Amino acid sequence: MSSLSSSPSTRSTQDVGPDDLIRVETVQTLTDLVASMPGLVILIDDSGDVLAETEAWAYGFGSEADLDKIPERSDAPASTSVSENDDRDVDTSFFARHDVDGNWRKVVRTCLDSEREVRDYDVPLRMPDGATYWIDFTARPWRARDSQGVMLHAVDRSNAHQAAVMRRQVEDRFDILIETISEGVLLMDQSGVFRDCNHAAEKILGRPAADIVGSRFSDNQWKGLRRDGTPLPNAEFPFWQAVVEREAIHEEVMGLYPPDGPPRWIRVNAQPLFKDEAEEEPYGVLACFDDITDEQLKDEALQASRDLLSSVLSSSLDGIMVFSAVRDDAGAIVDFECLLVNPQAEKMLNRSSEYLIGTRMLEEMPGHKENGLFDAYVDVVQTGEPFETEVHYSTDDFDRWLQIVAVRIEEGFAFTFRDISERKRAAQAMAATNEKLEQRNRALRDFAYIASHDLQEPLRKIGAFSNLVLEDYGDKIDETGQHYLERMQDAARRMSQLISDLLVYSRITTQARPFKPVDLETVVENVVMDLEMQIQDVDGTVDVGQLPTIDADSTQIRQVLQNLIGNALKFHRPDVPPVVKIRSEIVEAGDESVPTHETNAARFCRIIVSDNGIGFEQKYADRIFAPFKRLHGRSEYSGTGMGLAICRRIVERHGGDIRVVSTPGEGTTFIVQLPVDRHDADAANEPSVQDHATTPATLDE
């Protein structure tokens, strides 16, 4: 960096005028004149011999006493004198004493040749002992009758020269220091124009020195920002404040926009510069600043996080409180002190945050000790394990069910609490309603059991007495009477079967066996054995493939397979022996055809029961699974219309599905898909122990 003030050290040799030559008759006239002159004056001839010198010159720049310090003439260069007439062993001439560089010979020659006065400033004058003086001089030519030379008048500027040298050294060291520090440095004059900057300033401000130096702080390129992000007026620029207030500005934070990109944030120290203590107006300002953009962004992010946390706390529907542990001398937690309360907590507790903050938990909420919450919070602080519970908290002015979650925070904990009184009341009401419904369902099941038992008994008596009538009084009843009795017996049997099927259907989900591994091949073998007579009557064939073992209710699965195989044998085409094929395959849960509801099973068993029977229109595929729905009259095919409805109910209870594909005159295919494995989540579908006890009896009926 260069200084705003400069000290010119120009060296120029200039001619004074054409009449500068001093003309004298004899040189004695000049020697007498020099001897009487004040100041630093020396008279030399054209060979450099000293003809006269003032006392000041002799005192300041040496005299004959210094001759022993002059080197031997033989050591001097060949042209050590303007003339060649000096044959002394020691050259005592002006040139030998002071002209180490030969510059003075040039001055004397120029002066004599031009016969004009020569001036120069800050010129070195060497001493025999090696010391150097810096002088301003005037050399004026003289000429006498038999000689010529120069009268040299000097002004000693050695002190000023030394001061200038020292100042330049200081400036150089200052520049080196400024360029090596990491802080940016700007030098601004009293008009607000930046005069210099270091490399760090270029880097921080994102601009080259050419864009900085010469610009004014109020130019558009220096749009500043306050710490809160609002525009910074020119009057508030720290650099300018130092000029206006004439005082140093410390630690002012401001933002500046680089040419491209987000603002840079700097912390500024600005020092006004005065030429001397008496100066009232600074001639400039030296501003040092460091880049605190990362720190500022971190502060902004932290503030944003605080604002966000504050928003969350303010908008939360849960009460939130933060407590710090209060310990005794032994380090044991004896209480908790409230540190933070959100608005919802204030509302729920009917206490202001000003009141709650600083209070002790056991003083403000003594019930926490009795209900165990205090010990739970102590455990949270000591172990770091979160705590969650639902508690009924009641005081003189507070009576609510609360859901509480507590987590450790440093030397304390934060807990959120939600008023779940409404949910608790609803749950209690729902439990009471469910209990009533359970009682009614239990009564209905008892009624159904009793009704079925009571209805079956009259039906059996109707059948028994009609048989007795036919056996004992058949010969006394005409054919019409016997026909009526036979129809009565048939109606009683159908009524009995209807009641039995209806009871089976209604108790599928309430009275069943738990899911256990079931070997489907064994189940099918037993079903085929049970249907052996029916198979022989229709000359049918049942072809059974490999079947897996699945978790199921064996009784209900047997019911499904018996109904499907029985239907396949029953609905065969006239004069065409029924052929029933049973196949299976395992499919993954992701298969599109696999049901995804009510079970978490990963694999399903697909059981396919196909026949070559009469078939039906596909549009009736859903209708046949409805209770009491039949596609044929009872005179054509026997049955109650409940078989397939029972199958669908059982399959759905197992978390599977059943569907049918049929073509009239070609046959029908039932596809049943059941989970292979059971999971804990499916256990809820299993019947209760109480229901298990009644299932066999119900099915038998």
Automatic annotation (TrEMBL):
Ranges of compositional bias, category Polar residues: 687-701
Histidine kinase domain boundaries: 450-678
Enzyme Commission (EC) number: 2.7.13.3
Broad class of enzyme this protein falls into: transferase
Transmembrane segments: none
Molecular functions per Gene Ontology: phosphorelay sensor kinase activity
Gene3D superfamilies per record: 1.10.287.130, Histidine kinase-like ATPase, C-terminal domain, PAS domain
CDD domains: HisKA (cd00082), PAS (cd00130)
Residue numbers spanned by region Disordered: 68-87, 682-701
Catalysed transformations (reactions): ATP + protein L-histidine = ADP + protein N-phospho-L-histidine
Sequence ranges assigned to domain PAS in this UniProt record: 170-214
Residue ranges of domain PAC in the record: 250-304
The keyword Nucleotide-binding belongs to this UniProt entry's keyword annotation: no
Keywords assigned: Kinase, Phosphoprotein, Transferase
UniProt name for this protein: histidine kinase
Organism: Longibacter salinarum
